[in-house]
Write a structure and sequence with these properties.
This protein has helices at 3-32, 96-103; strands at residues 33-37, 57-61, 75-79, 114-122, 126-130, 133-136, 139-140, 157-160, 165-169, 191-192, 196-205, 211-212. It is of the alpha+beta class. The chain is elongated.
């Protein structure tokens, strides 16, 4: 076999491997797992997105239905269908190569049209902010994940979450324009379940912060009020 023929076969094999890899990546991104970039500090300290720090990249499991649905305490990424996200929190143009890698799921999405928050209440729950504390179905939540120095809620509120909706809040309560601040919107601050992209389960980057995102114990209270 000639050298040119061998080179052609090698190139054809490499092209096949690359094509198969892209197809697998597209399948994974579309149905299973996708990477997202955290663009703001609203979930500090759980997720870094602060000015001057290395913003976190998280992996999101898109198959929440296989995990028993969305649970209280989950960190979720959802479509900003009601326009909560300020225009300033867009990533800008990162170039064609980044766009291509994002398309196939090999680079994190800028999340410019998505938000990341923690689920506090699901359909049927009553969530209340009273005297700086958050109550779920009448039981006080112990929230060690809240940003140091913040109270769980300086905004008084009391809502009952409709079926197929979620009440979400950022962990950096003083810097999070979450459900509390959108009660006058058409959606009344509730996030439709069908707008959820998936549950964030891993911080993938930077490596010194890599780890899993687990559901806090406060959502497994013995009286059953915070069970999913």
């Amino acid at each position: 076999m000639s050298q040119a023929r061998r080179a052609w076969l090698l190139l054809r094999e490499l092209a096949g491997i690359l094509g198969a890899s892209i197809l697998v990546s597209l399948f994974v991104k579309t149905l299973l797992v996708q990477a997202f970039f955290v663009p703001s500090g609203s979930m500090e300290p759980t997720l870094h997105g602060c000015e001057g720090c290395f913003n976190d990249r998280v992996l999101v499991n898109k198959q929440t239905s296989l995990l028993g649905g969305i649970h209280r305490g989950d960190v979720v990424v959802f479509h900003d269908s009601d326009g909560w996200l300020p225009p300033a929190l867009t990533s800008g143009d990162q170039g064609g190569v980044h766009d291509a890698l994002t398309f196939i799921g090999l680079a994190p999405s800028s999340a410019e049209s998505n938000l990341v928050k923690r689920v506090i209440g699901v359909g049927g729950d009553t969530v209340e902010g009273r005297d700086g504390t958050v109550y779920l179905n009448g039981t006080r939540l112990d929230e060690p994940y809240v940003f140091p120095g913040n109270r769980p809620s300086d905004v008084p509120f009391k809502v009952t979450v409709p079926a197929d909706k979620l009440w979400v809040m950022g962990d950096h309560r003083a810097e999070s324009a979450d459900s509390r601040f959108h009660q006058q919107d058409p959606g009344k601050g509730f996030v439709p379940v069908d707008q959820v992209v998936g549950r964030a389960f891993v911080i993938a980057w930077p490596l010194n912060r890599a780890g899993t995102l687990n559901r806090p114990a406060t959502f497994d209270q013995p009286d059953g009020s915070a069970k999913s």
